[in-house]
Amino acid sequence: MAATHAQRSTREIFTTLEYGPVPESHACALAWLDTQDRHLGHYVNGKWLKPERRNSVPCRDPITGENLASCPQAQAEDVAAAVEAARTAWENWSGLPGASRAQYLTRLAKMIQKHQRLLWTLESLVTGRAVREVRDRDIPLAQQLLQCHAVQAYTQEETLAGWEPMGVIGLILSPTFSFLEMMWRICPALAVGCTVVVLVPPGSPTPLLLAQLAGELGSFPGILNMINGPASLGPILASQPGVQKVTFCGAVEGGLRLLIQESVWDETMRRLRERMARLRGGRGLDGAVDMGARGAAAHDLAQRYVREAQSQGAQVFQAGDVPSVSPFFPPTLVSDLPPASPCTQAEVPWPVVVASPFRTAKEALAVANGTPRGGSASVWSERPGQALELGYGLRVGTVWINAHGLRHPEVPIGGCKESGSSWHGGPDGLYEYLRPSGTPARLPSLSENLNYDTFGLAVPLTLPSGPEIGPSPAAPYGLFIGGRFQAPGARSSRCIQDSKGNLHAYVAEGGAKDIRGAVEAAHQAAPGWVTRPPGARASLLWALASALERREPALASALERHGVELKTAKVEVELSVRRLRAWGARAQAQGHVLQVAELRGPVLRLREPLGVLAIVCPDEWPLLAFASLLAAALAHGNTVVLVPSGVCPIPALEVCQDMATLLPAGLVNVVTGDRDHLTRCLALHQDVQALWYFGSAQGSQFVEWASAGNLKPVWVNRGHPRAWDQEAQGAGPELGLRAARTKALWLPMGD
Amino acid sequence: MSARNLGTELDLSWISKIQVNQPAVLRRAEQIQARRVVKKEWQAAWLLKAVTFIDLTTLSGDDTSSNVQRLCYKAKYPIREDLLKALNVHDKGLTTAAVCVYPARVCDAVKALKAAGSTIPVASVATGFPAGQTHLKTRLEEIRLAVEDGATEIDVVINRTLVLTGQWEGSDFIKTSTGKETVNATFPVAIVMLRAIRDFFWKTGNKIGFKPAGGIRSAKDSLAWLSLIKEELGDEWLTPELFRIGASTLLSDIERQIYHHVTGRYAAYHDLPMS
Q: I need a surface site. Which of A95, B63, B178, B196 has the fewest CB within 10 A?
């Protein structure tokens, strides 16, 4: 057992040739805690903030349980003070030239370098993680992140023209956060000119140390503030005036699922067991252990899982030189888990690996993609072709081919599905903290009146209302689903009035069932569209553009009936045509290759479609907004369900007639009806993979709330109309960014 | 060397199927060196153990009986007696695993060891060392002569022309290189060789020995090699029958480290006897 090193003599060890303890002294960590008399505070505006009368939470050594220090539990006023400091600092920080921010980040990187031993011993002491992991990977990478983002800041004016920093960023750390994950978020935020308030789970002093190091640089206090408090203070942080974005930082790596092809199952399992038996666990501050411990809670979680799996008939293999007392838990390999058992669905806790066999690569892909998580995956194969195919097919943010766990500041990491849709590192990470210049800032006030249970629940009834003075020929009637016009499930219609209040046309009243059908059709069309080469996508968009051009008189007159001057209507049609062509052209150039130091071989930065994208179009610019959003979505390989303008859906339905003949069935589905109701159906649909909403502030709020169900990425306008006729807002890079997600595919090479 | 590779049917598919993931091997090599450090008593014990794996070697053109004799004496008494006493291992009969010389010096070595009253085996490099580009007939004759002179272990340079054309030979031990190449014993190469040894053992039950040679000069290096064997093949390979380190200057660095461990001081050049 690695922990029970009784005093051994050289003579004994000469015979047994065993490993011994390699204790890393944590005296400096304790000395640092002593500088605060073991009573830490918040770190706000470059100073320690130690308010009176706060509950204090102990910071413990997770292995010995020893009380190392105490941290105050924040109250709302502490959060407000931190946000105020960040807001004041932002005024100055955001206005600085990028070069000055670059200089600051470089100095902070140097500061970390100077105090690295303190950082790594403190982090290992309080988290129980193996010191070699923190020392050899986290701290050097944290420095690289700062340096790399210094470069990004330096070139900001040039490469990010047209974007501005959002403002104050709130960062909520989960109780099992890792220091490094926090750095992936802080660095880009500071680099682009945002300031940060971090909500640190009580008892985690490392972020406080980082803030102190930053504070001691002297200049710009208040750009990085730390508040100790539980995640339940998150809503208070989010509602502070000035907080523009709240991001969440999840856990360090958990357990793993391993899919092994049947033909190599025995051989792989044998090697795996062999290697596991050689792993060493113990106190994190021992320099010769592979794995530390993560506290009693993590131990109990792992134990419960393993016992549950065992009771369901799974095989459990445990090995390695690990102390047999809590909180230490041996590396565990679980196999033969029945497919229907609850453990198969549950998240695998650290340090457990669940192995299951598969027959074909196709099956493996289906299993791997059949989970709600989408963070990262590695593919191990001796056949490069097959490995690449799997790498492209996996719905995750990062794929390593024949490698695992590689990270680099210039390679974006992120995820999809429930692993979240934000990006860190690389240029992708910067946009998380930027907004297009001129877009309004987020107001913190959420409407209290919005009833999530009833928003858009009922559909207003529509009765016949006067003579129909429709266009000639009559506008198409029905919902455009699966490539053809269909009668709505509710078999009722809504009337569309022209600008004079006359009845222009009846359109179909879509409902929940129609949305379901449309989403299904879009899913069916997705595989065909994704695999179509960009060139083919481009030519279809161009064909649609030509069709629109031919339809110009009808479209212009429909717009005219809604009060648009004929000249403006013609411009709108012409711009719509241009948008389709422009996005068609951009379909060609997506993704690129990154070359990363320390790694031979490329990292492919792929831009992949979001999947089934639902778009609720704005009322303004009924044709142009529809065409602009549609074009961007299709060019990036998405299939779409669209709700056209509520007041003027006729032009969109006209275009559907061309799409029926030109596009594959189900690629584009257009559902008319009550916008709030359709928005509700889309937002609550778990199989809609992304949602763009342009409508009211209340609708936006509802969309954000309801989409949390499957954490689909959303884009909402919070009731602010966009200038669709302007290049920046109507066809700018923001649309392209929103229309696809990034995947990093690591291809280490060597023979 | 007692264990013998009794051989097996040559199945070239074993070799043709081998795939090496180079980046992963490099990573593993780095990890073992960083994560398997030993300190204090453990370090001293491991270093002493390392001594027992050394093939104390001299392979110079100007080797004579006098320096071979000195080498043999050092092989018999690798660490100063008072240091061993301080560590309470003076009764372990600590010697190096073998002495290794050119064929022409085998006689000298055997004589010197006999005079010192030692049973340490004499190993000889042979077969046109280090290039191996001589005729099969002379190569075989060279081995025969070395054995006649009293060598009990022969480091054979395989015919690399045959290897590169896919015609392999079998052996009891495999060695990273002659030690005379520009690149010799490196960790990544060793990992690949050790995995091959493990696969062969799993398939046939035969244990093949491993000898890294060339460039292993520091005590720290030798510790890393021991952990590499321990990690990749396990403790059962940590015996002179299955593991050797070919080295000439390594021993003196180990002795210096032991001196430091015992006395707390760094040794002066003249504190330790030369080999």
A: A95
CA B233 to chain A, closest CA, distance in angstroms equals 10
**From A131, which residue of chain B is nearest by alpha-carbon distance?**
B35
Query: Which is more confidently placed, A253 or A347?
Result: A347
Active site residue B203: no
Query: SS3 letters for A43-56?
Result: EECCEEECCCCCCE
Mean pLDDT of the region B154-158: 92
Taking the CA atoms of residue B158, residue B160, residue B164 and residue B169 in that order, the dihedral angle to the nearest 10 degrees is: -10
Sequence-separated contacts (24+) of A681-687 with Cβ below 8 Å: A681/A456, A681/A511, A681/A512, A681/A515, A681/A516, A682/A515, A682/A614, A682/A616, A682/A641, A682/A643, A683/A707, A684/A709, A685/A515, A685/A516, A685/A519, A685/A614, A686/A710, A687/A519, A687/A523, A687/A612
For the packed helices A512-530 and A675-683, what is the interaxial angle rounded to 10 degrees?
A: 60
Nearest 10 degrees: CA dihedral of A261, A265, A269, A272? -40
Please state the length of chain A: 751
Give the model's confidence band at A595: pLDDT under 50 very low, under 70 low, under 90 confident, else very high: confident
Choosing among B35, B87, B230, B238, which should be mutated to test the A contact, i.e. which has the most A CBs within 10 A? Answer: B35
B260 reaches A (C-beta below 8 A)? no
Task: Enter the tokens of residue B192.
Answer: 């690949």
Nearest C-alpha neighbor of A8 from the set B91, B47, B50, B45: B45
pLDDT at A1: 39
The ipTM, to two decimals, is 0.92
| Rounded-to-integer distance, Cα A27 and Cα A29, Å | 5
∠ Cα B175 B176 B181 (to 5°): 120
Residue A627, amino acid? A
- The active-site residue, picked from B175, B203, B220, B230, is B175
Residue B18 has pLDDT above 90, yes or no: no
Q: In this model, does residue B84 exceed pLDDT 90?
A: yes
- Residue B164 corresponds to which tokens in the numbers above? 């590169």
Reply yes or no on whether the pLDDT at B83 is more than 50. Answer: yes
- pLDDT at site B8: 75
Task: Identify the residue whose tokens are 């024949």.
Answer: A402
Interior CA angle at B162 toward B159 and B165, to 5°? 150
- Please name the residues in contact with A396: beta carbons below 8 A apart, sequence gap of 6 or more: A374, A375, A376, A377, A415, A416, A419, A743
Q: What is the pLDDT of residues A463-492, one digit of tens each?
A: 777 776 666 667 778 999 999 999 999 898
Question: B211 catalytic, yes or no?
Answer: yes
Q: Tally Cβ neighbours within 10 Å of residue B115.
A: 11
Band the pLDDT of B275: cuts 50, 70, 90: low
pTM confidence score = 0.92
Write the pLDDT tens digit of every residue in A339-369: 888 888 888 999 999 999 999 999 999 999 9
At residue A414, the pLDDT reads 85
Closest residue in A to B92 (Cα–Cα):
A11
pLDDT tier at A445, thresholds 50, 70, 90 = low
The residues near A447 (Cβ < 8 Å, ≥ 6 apart) are A697, A698, A701
Q: Does the distance separating the beta carbons of B24 and A402 come in below 8 Å?
A: yes
The conformation of residue B239, written as its DSSP 8-state character, comes to S
Write the pLDDT tens digit of every residue in A647-700: 999 999 999 999 999 999 999 999 999 999 999 999 999 999 999 999 999 999
Chain A positions touching B36 (Cβ under 8 A) are: 19, 288
Q: Is there a contact between B88 and A403 if contact means CB atoms under 8 Å apart?
A: no
Residue B134's SS3 state is coil
In 3D space, the residue among A666, A651, A672, A618 whose CA is nearest the CA of residue A510 turns out to be A672
Task: Tell me which residue in B34, B41, B231 faces A9 most closely, judged by beta carbons.
Answer: B41
Task: Name the residue with tokens 């091997």.
Answer: B25
